[in-house]
Amino acid sequence: MSAVTTPARQASGGVNVKTVNRIVIYGLLALFAVFYLMPLFVMLVTSFKTMDEIQNGNMLALPRAPTFDPWLKAWGETCVGLTCAGIKGYFWNSIKMVVPAVLISTMLGALNGYVLTKWRFRGATLVFGLMLFACFIPFQSVLLPMATILGSVGRFGVTLQNSIGTSFGLGNSTVNLVFVHVVYGIGFTTLFFRNYYEAFPTELVKAAQVDGASFFQIFRRIMLPNSMPIFVVTVIYQFTNIWNDFLFASAYAGTGDAMPMTVALNNVVNTSTGVVEYNVNMAAAMIAALPTLLVYVLAGRYFVRGLMAGAVKG
Amino acid sequence: MSTVATSQIKLTPEHARPRASVRSRLQDALPKIVLAPSFAITIVFVYGFILWTIYLSFTNSKTFPSYVITGSRAYQRLWGWTFDTDPPSSWYTSITNMGIFGFLYILICLALGLFLAILLDQKIRGEGMLRPIYLYPMALSFIVTGVAWKWFLDPGLGLEQTLHQWGWTSFHFDWIKNKDFVIYTVVIAGVWQASGFIMAMFLAGLRGIDGEIMKAAQIDGATTFQLYRRIVIPLLRPIFLSAFIVLAHLAIKSYDLVVALTSGGPGGSAWLPSNFMYEYTFKRNEMAVGSASAVIMLMTIVAIIVPYLYSELREKPR
Amino acid sequence: MLRKLLIGTALATSFAFSAHAADVKEVQMLHWWTSGGEAAALNVLKGDLAKEGYAWKDVPVAGGGGDAAMTALKAMVAAGNYPTASQMLGYTVLDYAAAGVMGDLTETAKKEGWDKSVPAALQKFSVYEGKWVAAPVNVHSVNWLWINKAVMDKIGGTEPKTFDDFIALLDKAKAAGVIPLALGGQNWQEATMFDSVVLSTGGPEFYKKAFNDLDDASLKSDTMKKSFDNLAKLVTYVDPNFSGRDWNLATAMVIKGDALVQVMGDWAKGEFHAAKKTPGTDFLCYRFPGTDGSVIYNSDMFGMFNVPDDRKAAQVALATATLSKSFQSAFNVVKGSVPARTDVPDTDFDACGKKGIADLKAANDGGTLFGSLAQGYGAPPAVANAYKDVVSKFVHGQIKTSDEAVTELVKAIDDAK
Hints:
The complex is a heterotrimer.
Chain A: H1 15-47, H2 51-56, H3 69-76, H4 90-118, H5 124-133, H6 143-164, H7 173-183, H8 186-198, H9 202-210, H10 215-223, H11 228-244, H12 247-253, H13 261-269, H14 278-300, H15 309-312
Helix pairs in contact in A: 1-14, 3-14, 4-7, 4-8, 4-11, 5-8, 7-12, 8-11, 11-14, 13-14
Chain B: H1 2-8, H2 13-16, H3 22-57, H4 73-82, H5 90-120, H6 127-135, H7 142-153, H8 159-165, H9 182-208, H10 211-219, H11 224-235, H12 237-253, H13 256-262, H14 273-283, H15 287-313
Helix pairs in contact in B: 3-15, 4-15, 5-9, 5-12, 5-14, 6-9, 7-13, 9-12, 9-13, 10-11, 14-15
Chain C: H1 2-17, E1 26-31, H2 36-51, E2 55-60, H3 67-79, E3 85-89, H4 91-98, H5 106-112, H6 114-117, H7 120-126, E4 127-128, E5 131-132, E6 134-136, E7 138-141, E8 144-148, H8 149-155, H9 163-175, E9 179-182, H10 187-212, H11 216-220, H12 222-235, H13 247-256, E10 259-263, H14 268-274, E11 283-287, E12 295-298, E13 300-304, H15 312-322, H16 325-335, E14 338-339, H17 351-366, E15 369-371, H18 381-395, H19 402-416
Parallel strand pairs in C: 1-2, 1-3, 9-10, 12-15
Antiparallel strand pairs in C: 3-13, 4-5, 6-13, 7-12, 7-14, 8-10, 8-11
Helix pairs in contact in C: 2-16, 10-12, 10-18, 12-19, 18-19
């Protein structure tokens, strides 16, 4: 177990020092929790206020006459462009894009990390370095060349559709977005897994190899079961980034019926000229973030301590 | 774990044979085959596009890409702007802000993330509740949290106003309105957004550390502080690398943070290079200048990251 | 090269679609009008088209006053997926037309008589090399004052006719303890106000020379310096928290009576309407002092793309509906702007709208209708944004004197040209 419960046992002060330590730790954690929660508090109270109260009252004050209307409006009535059916319809668009993109990029990252640490070959470090540096490319500068390529692929898809009756998903906005997010996500997923597996005892892999386990058997039986904490981190990272991406989503999927949640949210929130309904905006933002929050809470459960304990002794 | 692996996997005859068969050669190449697709798409869609950007920076591309090479005028303009300090050019503001923001943001996030992870790793009751509290800022799109922060930092609406109402009338906090301090408010909001995730990365690292090592050190009489400084933190080195890369990339791409929070700041004083790049490429229709600024950003990253990567990644004697 | 490439992709698209012979009864429309009032206004058009049997495929991308939409448009054009039409501003239309991706609506224009009904100043942007490529939707005008009438009555103010009157009025407000001038300290708002200041300080001829022709001598002149001095004077009347404020919050200050006046384009009227205020009784609209008789405009246009043949009928229907008198009236009543053709009856408009329509007609006839530099109708985006930089840096103190501001302005515009 990694935790150092406290040095209380060695300290002469005994129980008192231990208690004081615990109080300090909990105090600090609570203090930071307040810092992190502050904007959420502002958003929450705002989402339950009427516009009148927002314009005239203090932003930190609790709503005088709490109303649930902004939430209902954000969910089912607010206008996304000319369609006034709330943001509820855009969940599915985002989910069917985010889930495959996260799964594919995470699995590729895990495999890459495994190869780069346990099956080193000449130049492996260079390959990793190149993939790592790829994380830094500004997305704005890939927007146009990527669009050109996706456009040609889409036309090829139409040709296929006309000649053999199926386009294999080429040119489909959702498929395009999944592809783009996988391309620009594997740098990070590879980084996370590679650095996690770096500390993973190579002896275990060597032993299994001697025993004749194949490449994939070792990955499935030894690496994967010991990767839970890093899986959590990677999935959280990928899910959040892809879910919240606006640039690619608006450029590659803003047209069709595949419009993801972020683009819809942006259309609700961002108005150039006109009245800004802050309460509806805040409610919409929180509704839009629910899937990510859910992932945090659910995935967080796998953060359990001591997963490695059995294995590392090897 | 290891016992499971040994007992279930039998020695295969192929492996025993000394001569390399087709199959075993395939086995040897398998890791490379697995890695190849990822590497290939990176080469095409990252390095190919970087080359494309470099090419454009030497053209006269305006609204659309143009492929006629016209020389280095874009770089000459950027170079000129680098020394336009009074009044500061947008480019000068962007790169100075990048220095301030990048340094503080990465440093504070790393320190705070590690600190919170260590605190949370002390067998805390309610960890399951605290973790999402620290993490949730990542989940919310900054399009909206930007508005909440903007209000909170606005002296007429937020913290200052509230404290005045509570009677502390001498309190002043108007950084967001001040051209010299606005970039620090971007740091505050940025740290709020990302530090929780860094905490999660460190927490994952801490959970991966072999408990036996810690126990041994404790028995040797190391204090908690010594234990973390001498043993735990060195073991977290790879996580530091991951965290650093994530933060550096977030810092460089912090575009919407600036826009949502400050709309560019008083007189454009909160601009970062990513704002500059977006402005010139898409708003001002000076794609060559936008591309040149992207190339300079990338080169700066190379200059900073590559030595770090080299020292971290070079093959260590085993 | 690019032109060939783009035409190539367009051809490829049209081949791809040639399999379906029948017309596509659908318009695909990229726009950033997502707020309640704007969407309601656009819904009028959607309804008009539905009556003719055309479905409306909505492509809204909001944010940054059209920045996000223009980025998305660029990506769509690069991919060869043109929308039927897109909301566009001024020089952007000409840029896309030069790249050869715009359609040709000249026939429709002839049939509908747009050449006569649309002001020449607007045709500069909707006609490229003799071909109609865009349908103007409205004309906004930016040289307006929006005043809270209750505050005005309280301080005993009257309509300011000159810049000095205006300063005197602001002083009165200051003495009475209200914030005299509501301003949002974002570069486009500051520059929009400065457009009016320059017109007021230098007169119509000067404005045109400096901000439409980008004449060097005018930009360098003492009149420009005086304009910056006047801007500096105005800025002393704003509250200390103005920097970064959104324009609609500044309007709200006037609506609530916290501030006396805002200098803003006529889209501000939408905010007053939303707050259920009526012109004349709750608020007043005056031309910026010293600019009566001239109009600084900007206009929303629907750029028409070179779509495949089977989508052209829908495009023509969209363009015709856009410039129909009934739509022009219905839309602009809601939006706060005035019709893009000068022959639309003003019966449905409120007092401010009626004045706007009359002013536009007079300015068009008298040759005093000028593009707003801040809004992208005075010069291409590179220049317009360089201009906004300088004005904003002057307002926020990075540029300290008006001498320096003039030097910087000349330098910046030169550099961006």
